[in-house]
Amino acid sequence: MDSKTKRQRYTRQWKYARRSLNERCIGEQPSNNPITFQERNNEENYTDEDIASVSESVEIGVSVESCSSGPDSVADSPTEENCISDTETENEMAPTSLSTFLQQWATKHLIKHNALEDLLRGLKQNGHPELPSTARTLLKTPRHITSVVKSGMECVHFNLRENLLEQLQRYPREITDGATTVELSFNIDGLPLFKSSKTHLWPILCAIHLPPISVFPVTLTLGPTKPTNLDFMEEAIKDIQELLDNGLDGKEIKIRCVVCDAPARAMVKKIKQYSGYYRCNKCTQKGTWVAGRMTYPEVDNLTSRSNDTFRAEMTRRQENEEMPVSPFLSLPLDMVEQFPIDYMHQACLGIMKKLLTVWVRGDRKVRMSAGQISNVTQRLLSLQKVIPSCFARKPRHLEDIDRWKATELRQFAVYTGKIVLKGILADQLYDHFMVFSVALSLLLCPTLAVEHNAYSKELMKYFIEKTGELYGEHFTVYNVHSMLHLPEEALAFGSLDACSGFPFENYLGKLKRLVRSGKQPLTQVVKRLVEMPKSPLSVEASKPKFKRPNNAFILDEGKCCEAIEEREESDDSGCQMLLCKLFEKTEPLFRDPRDSRILGCFKVQSRHAVMKLIPERQLTRQAIMVEKRDETIFLAILHEQR
């Protein structure tokens, strides 16, 4: 069959289908029956990426274009119907409240295009002819996403100035108008997309440090391995430099920090990995090779690195043409202080996970018995009902330790560990863990991180020294050594949460959920990002529900209370009153290594409780309340709640 005959046959089929559809729609009578959707042929059940085009030059600012049958234009969806629907009238494209709702609903719940088109078809047949026929039209999906190849990766770059301006417009005017300086932090990390493939997404992310923190991508790169060089950062560095030089709408732009885990930090700074002899980013301690690991046992008399010495070394390297240098050197950055140690990776995913692993599966001297592991697990599971909703995850089984996320490990290190391990873990190991827990807790609270910074450093020194004694010299690896420098990071940035990778890690999870199939994942991610409506950011906290487990608080005077019910009466200033069970007599939960009351850790007894009306404005410091047989424990929430 020649091409002319094929076109004629297709034209006849299309006209017949169109005529049949029109006749059916005209003949339908309005009814109150539920909407029914036509079943799709299995051959048409594809995602819009399955036939997306692949290009080699890039631009992101694209708009939805009409379909073209030329060789350089490929439809976004496999069906011919979708190509025809691109000729919809302006009336169909006109925004309506329903179409806006559908757009927000589809992007919020990551509805696939074929499912959304089934919904649109049913709605159009049941009283909403103004809706577009295709998901691509409704969501304004770009027809083409083109990319360049850099650093051995497929790369797409977003203009930083345009995206930053767009993100700032989402904030309330009272926040942006009052800010003369906007602080940005950046993150570079690898994200595996599939379990059965080596494909990794390497994004450069930017965070705006205004309440609430907003994260968005600057550059997205995709490849089977990590980048072969740092050429993929070139456009981002140029955009950052331009913003630092010219500002944005009269506002000064500053860089707070560049947050990376240890391998990525070594990569972007173009230095040796942390397994080298002199590879601590903060000091010049020489490592010692023990049992196949590079260890850093020293805690005193360490020489700190400085920006000047780092840049001098990089200049010498350039002159001798030894190795390429980091593109960050072209920016006015402190190459030591503004590349902080990320406690999420090194304290939570590093040390806390390692300790749990050796307690569960390690050497007999430090391993818990099966019965002890079961007891700890039962205690953890019993705490599920008392963990407030501000925590992303509830405690779970120790057998799942390999799948614990960073938030779960932080929860254990700072809050639940001190309760569930007491009386089960060996006393020496428990006391050692408590030193780590107290030091980390102090550095998470902005007030305590400054007031008790020197003390937290002494605790970290003791923790590192005892680690070698209890677990062996081979245990004092770079992650353990880096705890020595966490107090400096908390002092420089205000707290550990002010320079952590948690906001970026949350966004990486969102990026991963945008991938729907293994075909052209980078194109999928970019299209889903473009589809997302730029809704305003909410800065007002939702009204608290004073019900368990969200009704425990620590008052300013160090008293503990449980909110029982909201009352109709108000105080003189109009603030609503709440009936609370107030525990006026409190005791420290522990005294070693420090009185726990400075951390907001108390134990109380019910017989000392009184009922009292307290204004809602005083209930600002939320806590975890754990009721035991003979006492009740209150643990103040110290980390930053987003």
Automatic annotation (TrEMBL):
Residues 65-95 are annotated as: Disordered. This is Transposase domain-containing protein.
